[in-house]
Amino acid sequence: MRSVVIAGGAIAGLSAARELRRAGFQGRIQVVDQDRRGPYRRPEVSKGLLEGRLGVDSVTTPWPADLNVDRMLGVRLTGLDLAARTVQVEGREVPFDGLVIATGCAARRSPYEAMAGVHTLRSAEDAERLRPELAAATKIVIVGAGFIGLEVASVAWKLGKSVTLLEAAEIPLARVLGDDFGEHLAGIHRAHGVDLRTGVTVAGLVAGASGRVSSVELTSGETIAADVVLVAIGSEPATGWLRDSGLDLSMGVVCDETCAVADGVVAAGDVASWINPLYQRRMRVEHWTNAVEQGAYAARRLLGTHDPTGFASVPYFWSDQYGVKLQCVGSTLGHDQYAVLDHSDGRFLVAYGRAGRLVCVAGMNAGAAVMKHRAMVLRAVPLAEVSAVSAV
Questions:
Q1: DSSP bridge pairs for 126
Q2: Which pLDDT tens digit goes with each residue over 352-368?
Q3: Can you state the percent helix, strand and coil of the chain, rounding each to 5?
Q4: Topology of domain 3-106+235-303, CATH
Q5: Which of 68, 139, 213, 349 lies at a CB distance of 3.0 to 4.6 Å from 342, suitable for a disulfide?
Q6: Phi, psi at residue 16, to the nearest 5°?
């Protein structure tokens, strides 16, 4: 290869570029990114940036000058021609020998009528738009009690706002972390005065005389007053520019276990759907650590220096709510057993199993107890070795 194009300049793209140079690649590297800012710690979008405790500059990871990359910033990717080996950048053809697809995700679009005071939250720009409105508001309504919704509820509470959190499921995050963990988390929010309502569905948003949102209407007919509404209903892989490429986009950018998409094309980070050898199933992981590690592996795949058994990853993420740190190592998806390892003195620690093997450990205020299980998750030890099994 003489030239590599990296589509997406966030942390997965940066990690790929670093690994290419570390491994001795001396050809041209071009990075194409719609965001002019460059990589920043995205976990801080719903934490420090939104709260105003941190500025974008303080969470930015600069591209090192010694990587010698050509960066095309503030431009949109519009297409990929595999036969011609080019990506389209706003009408311009950019040729490549190797391509890293690392365009990440975007917030799922709000299904409700657009109006002032209604936000989604995924990027630093989103946080900058929401922050002053959140500061000026009194009543905040959040639609969706996933991680973003829960973290923003915590920030809004810290700012002294009245917070209503609406969730369609009966227990927040039960699909991800199980009923016990979800109930424990819900209890923390309610103990802080958040009006967390589960099993409810939003019918629509109501605008006031000025055209700005004034309330949220539930399918039950109840209306909830709102100065600001955050629609936090998940994210979608940023694959629109690949629509006519012929690639399989059914679950993000579909790869094999080695992150390969096509000849000389790999994917990494939030957008990549690959078969994780550790779990023997297809996964798409939207976490910082995974993006760093997968970006480096994808670069090695282009160079042919990768582990041929595939990219085996133990996903890790953390969340901070009301000063309580939630940590999770592994993947709970498809778990059929769990065991509560500790539920005392504000600590909560749970192990998850699948077919009798440990697949994940999650905890709140559990400190190093979560991370010490990482090696056990990687080895997929019998769950019985961790604790007595509790059937779901």
A1: none
A2: 999 999 999 999 988 78
A3: 30, 35, 40
A4: FAD/NAD(P)-binding domain (3.50.50)
A5: 349
A6: -65, -45
